[in-house]
Amino acid sequence: RLAARTARRLGVGVVGMVNTQRYGTLASFSEQIAEQGLVGLVANTSRPEATVHGARIPFLGVNPVSFAFPTSDGAVSADMSTTLAPMGVLWEARRTGCPLPPGCFVDEDGAFTEDPDAARAAMVFGEHRGFALSLLIQVLTGSLFGFPMGEGVDSTWSTGYLFIALDPAFAGQGEGHRAANTGLVEAIGQAAAREGGSVRLPGQEGKDRAARARRSGRLALDEALYQRLRARADGDFTSD
User: Fold this and answer.
1) Which of 75, 199, 204, 235 has fewest C-beta within 10 Å?
2) Are β-strands 121-123 and 105-106 bridged in parallel, bridged antiparallel, or unpaired?
3) How many whole angstroms from its chain centre is CA 186?
4) Contact yes or no for 142/45 (Cβ under 8 A)
5) Are 180 and 69 in contact (CB under 8 A)?
6) CB 72 within 8 A of CB 182
7) Rounded distance, CA 134 to CA 102, Å?
8) What is the tens place of the pLDDT at every residue in 112-163?
9) How confident is the model at residue 236, as a pLDDT?
10) CATH class of this structure's domain 2-83+124-200
């Protein structure tokens, strides 16, 4: 809210936050900014749990990022980590004993592993390009505000967050940017995918799944997740 209010006044609002913790995806925050007719970008760092090709130890955060922009039909958003797989995949694999997806995690020697107990770091996507993007997010959610980075991020409470809101009206666009964004989204929707159908927008699969769940009143869960939720509902916050 502070980022959006500042953007309305000055054209851009940049807010850093620490000593907090979120649950869920970053898109819920970037979409709140976009729903006000602004462009939103949200990111956070994390404990050093990610590495790059050729390195043996983790030194970057998983560094997720989300952006959203307004259209005439609502916000369009993207939400992703800068690693090939989020750390939640590793935690779930350790709970269930299932193998990790290939090529996403490395062991203490920097070799790819599918063994969740041997994995030490998540691999940043895109080789040097993903490394550069992750490094940018690390600085924006860290030293820009004097927040901890690297080994300094020792808990969820020392995790740094970034909220950016941009007001296109300050570029003389008025409300024209909504129509322009809508036209872009429609053009993407009309593009034929190689295997038939249309090109799917970032975040669209999750939104479609949520819409189906709301219509049916049901949400499919695997047995292990269901049992953990039941345990939490009974007050058990330690067992998996």
Assistant:
1) 235
2) antiparallel
3) 24
4) yes
5) no
6) yes
7) 21
8) 999 999 999 999 999 999 999 999 999 999 999 999 999 999 988 999 999 9
9) 82
10) alpha beta
What is the tens place of the pLDDT at every residue in 85-99? 988 899 889 888 889
DSSP symbols for the chain: -HHHHHHHHHSEEEEEE-S----S-THHHHHHHHTTTSEEEEEE--SS-EE-TT-SS--B----EEEEEEETTEEEEEEE-SBSS-HHHHHHHHHH-PPPPTTSEE-TTS-B---TTT--EEEBTTHHHHHHHHHHHHHHTTTTTT---GGG--SGGG--EEEEEE-GGGGT-TTHHHHHHHHHHHHHHHSBPTTSSBPPPTTHHHHHHHHHHHHHT-----HHHHHHHHHHHTT--S--
- Write the pLDDT tens digit of every residue in 32-53: 999 999 999 999 999 999 999 8
Distance CA 180, CA 192 (A): 21
Categorise residue 36: left if φ over 0, alpha if ψ from -120 to 50, beta otherwise.
alpha
The structural domains of the chain, with segments of one domain joined by +, span 2-83+124-200, 203-240
β-pairing, 50-51 vs 121-123, is parallel
For residue 195, pLDDT over 80 is answered with no
Q: Is residue 239 scored above 70 in pLDDT?
A: no
- What separation, in Å, do the N-terminal and C-terminal C-alpha atoms of the chain show? 36
Place of tokens 């809210």: 1
